[in-house]
Amino acid sequence: MLRRNEAAGMIVLGHRLPPTAREIVQQRGAAAPVVNGCEFDPALGIPSVHIDNAAAARAVMEHLYGLGHEQIAVVGGPPDNPLHQQRLQGVRAAGKARGRLRQQRIVPGDFSRPDGAGRPGGLP
């Protein structure tokens, strides 16, 4: 659609560019009408609108620690997913800052509602 000028631009919601978008970005560079709106990956070489997943996860952990929670389990995503990796950076940074890194339990998941809902009952 971009090649045929049927669309003015493309918003990508993922950490992988579709092949056509990748070609357009390689040809046009920064002028390509492609923006990432979800999983930030600087290697994509396109503008991005996203949250700081590491800082957000750290803030969540600090809040839970501040409430007095000692043992916190994190149900994350697939280990190779950039969102999961960025969030784990924040989780681990908060644990390290409080000397509780060894007390954290990280459980990989798939980011689905059924997976998340089914995990807590199996956690100690």
From TrEMBL:
Keywords: DNA-binding, Transcription, Transcription regulation. Residues 23-116 form the Periplasmic binding protein/LacI sugar binding domain. Gene3D superfamilies: 3.40.50.2300. The keyword Hydrolase does not apply. One of its GO terms (molecular function) is DNA-binding transcription factor activity. Pfam families: Peripla_BP_1. Residues 95-124 are annotated as: Disordered. InterPro entries: Peripla_BP/Lac1_sug-bd_dom, Peripla_BP_I. It comes from the Eukaryota. This is Periplasmic binding protein/LacI sugar binding domain-containing protein. It comes from Rhizopus delemar.
